[in-house]
Task: inverse folding
């Protein structure tokens, strides 16, 4: 974690401690594979496991190291597991919590949040300002509850209410010394934003703009075709399916713009701008350091050159379109995305990010102004006519007068996703682990490509052992080449 972010995500320095076949996880579970125990916590593995290595390592190992001045000194090295980067199913598999990014009844691994599609629980929230609505999980409380449930044998619905679904789990202090399961796996901004709500909210925005005649998708696609995107990421056309809405001219909950994570970030944030003097060499240096992480350079451009999809779509919109809540919600979302992708923060930035998340959520929920649809206009005319006729009957008048609330359209009702809540954890994670880009899954998912290539080389015979050995030699060669290019010539 102390390495600069560029170096931390350089594939050459990734060391594989273990590689696991999916069928093995399906058969033995995460605790069986990593810790060698069954669901009751009883030992089932014959040989050493990853957790055995950590438990042995906790005793420390004395090693002679070189100081910066060339002198030698003995140091006691102790390995700790300090951060786990994982998608939702994997994090849920390793932690005691029952969590899903799409489930109907869905607690959160970081707090006592749950949602039930009724919108009762969905509202803007800040862990900095409001500690009453959702409370961060407490390690002491969790351990005490689990111990009580273990002794009771039949915890009943208490476990479900607490969002816990297993009593023996991988990321436990018994297997990995000093670990804290309530905060070891921070929220991943790749799965929350570009692989999550950014793709959806872009589709919802474009549907609203298209269906309300503010612009057409062909205009957007023409703008995309004309835009000068970065060389390493081409943004595809918006699919025609974005034009399809749900009953009542609302956006579909599952609508998406069908872009990869890096394409979504590029679409949302990138704007071409002439490169200032001196920046070209800096960008080139960053590209050479970070070839696998295509969005790194995009973000680099964002922080220095310009921001964003807003400038791509703004010229196509009238002033009234820019006043709509769905447009302002998108602008607020882009601001949150841009702030979440930075590589450096001050303490003030953390609170600003928290404010931006709240602002986005408030706009997401804000009822839009009355639409100028024919149906609304007709209702207004009928009601106004009735009002003239029925001046002496105030009760009936009350019923027929088109009060503003009844004509307003809650365009995003029912579109709230659990990931909207998970994003509210980002400022807390930032304080605990540093910039979210320092532990996001983007680069590691890119690393999967190298693993797949190695698996193909193995001809699928003992591919796990082959992949490990292949990567050990390959990364060693690449690291040696950095120090001694002639050696690899
Ligand atoms: Zn939460």
Result:
């Amino acid at each position: 974690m102390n390495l600069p972010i560029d170096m931390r995500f350089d594939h050459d320095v990734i060391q594989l401690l273990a590689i696991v076949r999916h069928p093995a996880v399906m058969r033995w579970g995460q605790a069986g594979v990593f810790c060698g125990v069954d669901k009751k916590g009883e030992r089932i593995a014959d040989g050493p496991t990853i957790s055995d290595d950590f438990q042995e390592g906790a005793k420390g190992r004395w090693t002679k190291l070189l100081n910066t001045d060339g002198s030698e000194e003995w140091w006691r090295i102790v390995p700790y597991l300090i951060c786990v980067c994982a998608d939702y199913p994997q994090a849920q598999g390793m932690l005691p919590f029952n969590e899903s990014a799409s489930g109907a009844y869905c607690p959160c691994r970081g707090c006592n949040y749950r949602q039930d599609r009724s919108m009762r629980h969905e509202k803007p929230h800040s862990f900095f300002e409001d500690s009453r609505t959702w409370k961060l999980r407490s390690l002491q409380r969790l351990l005490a509850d689990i111990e009580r449930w273990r002794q009771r044998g039949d915890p009943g619905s208490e476990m479900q209410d607490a969002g816990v679904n297993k009593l023996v789990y991988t990321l436990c202090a018994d297997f990995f010394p000093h670990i804290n399961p309530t905060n070891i796996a921070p929220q991943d901004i790749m799965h929350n934003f570009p692989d999550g709500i950014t793709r959806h909210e872009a589709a919802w925005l474009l549907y609203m703009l298209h269906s309300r005649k503010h612009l057409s998708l062909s205009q957007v696609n023409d703008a995309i075709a004309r835009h000068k995107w970065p060389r390493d990421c081409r943004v595809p056309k918006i699919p025609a399916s974005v034009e399809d809405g749900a009953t009542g001219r609302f956006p579909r909950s599952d609508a998406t713009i069908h872009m990869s994570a890096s394409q979504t970030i590029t679409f949302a944030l990138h704007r071409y701008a002439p490169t200032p003097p001196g920046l070209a060499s800096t960008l080139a240096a960053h590209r050479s350091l970070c070839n696998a992480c295509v969005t790194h350079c995009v973000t680099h451009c964002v922080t220095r050159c310009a921001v964003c999809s807003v400038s791509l779509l703004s010229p196509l919109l009238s002033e009234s379109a820019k006043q709509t809540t769905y447009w302002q919600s998108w602008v607020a979302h882009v601001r949150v995305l841009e702030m979440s992708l930075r590589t450096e923060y001050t303490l003030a930035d953390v609170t600003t990010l928290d404010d931006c998340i709240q602002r986005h959520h408030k706009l997401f929920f804000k009822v839009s102004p009355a639409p100028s649809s024919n149906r609304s206009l007709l209702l207004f005319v009928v009601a106004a006519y009735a009002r003239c006729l029925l001046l002496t009957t105030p009760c009936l008048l009350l019923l027929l007068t088109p009060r503003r609330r009844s004509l307003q359209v809650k365009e995003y009702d029912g579109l709230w996703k659990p990931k909207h809540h998970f994003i509210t954890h980002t400022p807390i994670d930032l304080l605990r682990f540093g910039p979210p880009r320092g532990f996001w899954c983007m680069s590691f998912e890119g690393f999967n490509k190298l693993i797949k290539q190695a698996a193909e080389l193995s001809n699928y015979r003992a591919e796990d052992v082959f992949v490990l050995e292949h990567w050990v030699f390959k990364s060693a060669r690449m690291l040696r080449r950095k120090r001694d290019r002639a050696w690899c010539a």
